[in-house]
């Protein structure tokens, strides 16, 4: 995946997921995990970010956020 900015990267990532249903974006997940670990993020902090991140997602997408997605 060769992209030049964050917006293109998000779009290319979404397209990859849609084209490959059932597969996990392992390379991306690994990079994100390494980034958080290198920054010293700890397990206890994740529920806080999850809560507020999803509150924002629900605010923007409303009823489209089903329990299955959340
Ligand atoms: C549900 C939990 C979380 C998700 C989905 C998430 C998602 C992400 C993603 C996608 C990135 C970009 C990674 C990259 O550059 O490749 C990132 C970076 C980052 N995250 Fe998280 N994150 C979560 C939790 C947290 C927590 C708990 C903290 C700290 C309290 C945190 C702090 C950061 C910081 C400091 C960066 C780097 C930002 C930068 O490079 O400017 N994240 N996160």
Protein architecture, described:
It is built from 3 helices and no strands. The radius of gyration is 14 Å and the shape is globular. The model has no long low-confidence stretch (mean pLDDT 87). It has 70 residues and is mainly alpha-helical. The chain has a domain at 24-70. The protein binds protoporphyrin IX containing FE. Protoporphyrin IX containing FE (HEM) binds next to α2 and α3. InterPro entries: Globin-like_sf, Globin/Proto. This is Hemoglobin-like flavoprotein. GO terms for molecular function: heme binding; oxygen binding.
What topology emerges from the helices and strands here?
Blueprint: H1 6-19, H2 26-39, H3 46-61
The protein binds protoporphyrin IX containing FE.
Average pLDDT taken over every residue:
87
Q: Separation of termini?
A: 27 Å
Shape: globular
Could you state the oligomeric state of the chains shown? single chain
So how many helices? 3
How big a fraction of the residues is strand?
Answer: under 5%
N-to-C series of helices and strands: HHH
Low-confidence stretches: none
Radius of gyration: 14 Å
Based on helices, strands and strand pairing, what is the structural class? mainly alpha
**Biggest β-sheet strands, sense, barrel:** none
Organism: Neomicrococcus lactis
Protein name: Hemoglobin-like flavoprotein
GO molecular function, one term: oxygen binding
């Amino acid at each position: 995946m060769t992209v030049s900015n964050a917006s293109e990267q998000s779009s290319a990532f979404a397209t990859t997921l849609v084209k490959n249903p059932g597969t996990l974006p392992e390379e991306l997940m690994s990079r994100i995990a390494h980034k958080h670990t290198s920054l010293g993020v700890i397990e206890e902090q994740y529920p806080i970010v999850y809560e507020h991140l999803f509150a924002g997602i629900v605010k923007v997408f409303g009823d489209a956020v089903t329990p299955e997605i959340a």
